[in-house]
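new request in #modeling-help
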Amino acid sequence: MKIKDDKYTGLFKFIAYAVIILTSLACLFPFLLIISASFTDNASIIRDGYHFIPKKFSLEGYNLVLKAPDPVLKAYGVTMTTTVVGTILGLFFITMAGYVLQRKDFKYRNFFSFVIYFTTLFGGGLVPWYMLLTKYLDLVDTYTVLIFPGLMTPFLIILMKNFIRSAVPDEVSESAKIDGANDFKIYYSIVLQLSMPGIATVGLFLALAYWNDWFLSSLFINDPKLYQLQFYLYNIINTIAFITQMGAGSGVSLGGDIPTETTKMAMSLIVTGPILLLYPFVQRYFVKGLTIGAVKG
Amino acid sequence: MLIRRRGVLYELVKNRILFLMLLPALLFFLINNYAPMVGIYYAFVRFDFNRSLWNSEFIGLENFRFLWQSGILSKLTVNTLGYNLVFIISSNVLAIVCAVLLSEIQLKWFKKLTQSIMFLPYFVSFVILSVIVYNVFNYESGFLNTTLRSFGLGEADVYNTPWVWILLIPLFYLWKNIGYSMVIYLAAITGISDEYYEAAKIDGANIFQRARYITVPMLKSTFIVLLLFALGSIMKGQFDLFYQLVGNNGILYNTTDILDTYVYRSLKVTFDMGMASAAGLYQSLFGFVLIMVVNTIIRKINEDYALF
């Protein structure tokens, strides 16, 4: 009996390790390909294709990007600004809304919760929203249009509400109220302190969305000085694709002198770098957030 | 006292600070989500950028008629629903399998490391994903073709082969989202009491039976919650995923065009505002009706799982 059980356990463990290792490798593989390609000689990529280990090591891609760093730095600046300002403002609004909506003595909390939730069920569609922001609010080529739409989502407000409800006991608010503190004071000096892990999680969700956004630039930004980092990369990719296609069509190699492929890869890494560096430190907050958010509330 | 004790005004005065704290969020949704609903009218007029919405010529259902008769609408609906169903089912099944397997592994560092690796793709942008896909599949120097060539197996022209994308798009969806769903299921597994497993061991259940008859059934409620949550947005495709992988490559539209990409392209690439607003409104309404029907059915079966 015991021996048979061990045999099953061994088999199960073997399957578990095999499946998990294979899935992890599949998740990791594309990153290795990009990293390797960014350090490869461009001619070698065009001749021999992409490989895991550079056939011929070269830094020309990085050199080209860093030779004229102004546009990249500019795009970095735009994305940093929108990420920092958007995350701080968004957190302020989301925590306040989350706190109010979980207060049991706030009579209309269910009504307002539904007003917010309803926006996930029905909307006007892309065109009316686009027209409102461009024509009626005149937000083309402004920082506002890169920040405002990402400030909050119903999901994040609900997540925050659940966080606060589980982190701040009702008695704390009530006793502070008896001591004469007003609601904002309670929020500011007690609730925020007690829900720091939740704030970190929601803040990271916001920051990630701002950092990875290219959609808002593509819709609302014409001025290259206001391109977000991801949209800047997106444009470079398209320009390079265009140059190579033109070259192939006309028989003249327009991109011959430019290390097209390696530049693209180097740019990709420069754009993703901060996320890859911060990832090990912030990952656990996402796990925590998803764990609490998964509990229906 | 002038104000009635239980009236709206009384509440407003009594809880004015709470109302003020909620105000930014309410204003946000008012501007960002409720105000555009007025623009639904765009779908029924001949679009003219220089005229205001209410001065535009009313043309009734003409935009919809074109979309319907050209067959675009049914194709987009089938693609959107089809892809989303495949996404929902495959990602949940794979996430459950991975979570169950990973939960039985005792090596702490291995668990942490692999979980981090699987969660990593969730953090990179879709623009990077498009670079990755290009690296692997482009005809001249892509990883796939160079590998095929080195084994003398010919070449694959993926960017000109529409049917392949029916497999590739879900594959990259899984790549990006598997870690996310797995974390949720792992959390649910951690919540299962050890007593069940102890009792099963005493009864002689082996590790396969314990996984099959304890862990998997215990994940049912998490699965249903995630499933219903996903069904709520089944008409909203993964715009970033489709647009960054396919872009404006017309050869692939038949198998890869969804409502979101069609609306975006009509707005920004072909400047066909009539089609964009009609298809957008169709998407919103269809999605809304679908959620209502699904929710009513769920409410009948088991009220605890109803979305609202």
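bot summary: Chain A has 14 helices and no strands.
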